[in-house]
Amino acid sequence: MGLDNVWITNNIFKKVIDGRKHWADYPSDLIRVHDTHKEVSFVNQTEDMAEARIKFIGFLNDDQLIGSSYDNFFISEGSLYKENAFGYLQPIWDQKVAQGKKLSVNFNGTPRGIKNVLYELMRTYSGVDDPEDFPGAHGDCFIDKVTIHDVQVPMGRDKSGRMVYRPLYTEEGIERLKDRYLRQFGNLNLYKQEYECEFTTVNAGLVYQGIEQLVEEKRFTPYNLDTTKPVYAAFDISSKEKTTDATAGIVFQFYNGKMFVFDIFEDRGKSFVECFSQLATKPYFHLIRFVALPWDSERSASSETPIEEARRIWPAINWHALSRERVDRGIDQVRRMLPNMVINSVNCDWLLTCFMNYEYKRLEKMDDWAAKPKHDRHSHLMDAIRYSVMAINEMDYLNLNNTGADQALDPYYAGFYDDDDDDPQAGIPLAFRKKRSKRDPDLYL
């Protein structure tokens, strides 16, 4: 298994060497290539045995692994797989081992922090938690750590017939490489990740590298909600009827200049009000006073926009559509907030995973990083955290009082009429009144 299926097609089944596909000369009586199915079959088995086959699967299509019972697994770039990618396979592996059947599972990959599936697999099967203790034999598990200092290239055979090797990189070459990375990126994070296999080094492509400091300072920790303070929330709303997209939310408090992230939410294939209704079961729901939604929540192809529907169902909550802002500026706001952010480790483990894997796309041809982060399964909560910080910055302009209500837009404020005027909608909160024309002579502007 390698990268996505496009990569497999281009680098295995369509790869051309000297003007011919590299498998064109394979003997047809031994090997049959099924390029559309990403398979290679071995047809030289005896009549009483089924054909052996090799199946190529990209990590973005790893749902095809469910129900597999192959004898050998070779998994490339293991740290890029989904969190539970191998959950359905592990029982099959365990059963094969218990039955004494042939099984070999091989992973390779580079470290990408400590919040990914490869790290968890090594920690689980080795029985040790410190990455420094990973290398070596651990029962049926063996972990080999290969750094830039270990890479060897063959030089030929000596007089006795033994193969002779030399280091690929000289010490001078390594120093030049480190100097280039330092000049290009301002630090050696990417070098240490790719060449020294250091798990504790923050991924150089991370959008929020300050998350490492948050963890080191033990601000990813259990804490209790302060029930004397209002609770806020911000949501990234999924595209309607797009099951691959997700609605994600952050539940937080902000006081004394600090942001306390207490809980998170993520779900797919549901409308926003369906998602928000799930928070009604939370013990803190009655404390939610303010919810921020993206700027496009005021747009809809239907008769009612998401924010209008939310205001109708939950009129006691102050619903606010954020101003439209460039992604990079919103990211900068989060970076400035990170030193004053505390995250509840009881409810927000997936949020930390997203922080640790939210990264810019690497542009290999340009030897640079893209201007915008990659859009993948980690980006939904990262959009929600960005909206949360943007909401905090907009609260000063909204003039929120200590209950979270908007003083300037109090739904029970009826100051448009003089005491002597008869208000035809008297006693009806403004949020539920019929819209009046701007030319209404009874309306004092």
Briefly characterize the structure.
This protein has eleven helices and 20 strands. By secondary structure, the protein is an alpha/beta fold.
Descriptive notes:
This protein has 445 residues and is an alpha/beta fold. It is built from 11 helices and 20 strands. The protein has helices spanning 5-13, 90-98, 117-126, 171-185, 189-195, 211-216, 272-277, 306-313, 327-337, 349-357, 379-398, and strands spanning 16-17, 20-21, 31-34, 39-42, 52-55, 72-75, 104-107, 136-138, 141-143, 152-157, 163-167, 220-221, 231-236, 246-255, 258-268, 288-293, 318-321, 341-344, 360-363, 368-373. A 7-stranded mixed sheet has the order 12-18-15-14-13-16-17. Strands 3-4-5 form a 3-stranded antiparallel sheet, with no helix packed on it. It has a two-stranded antiparallel ribbon with strand order 1-2. Helix 9 packs across helix 11. It is globular and about 85 Å long. Mean pLDDT is 79; it is low at 401-423 and 425-445.
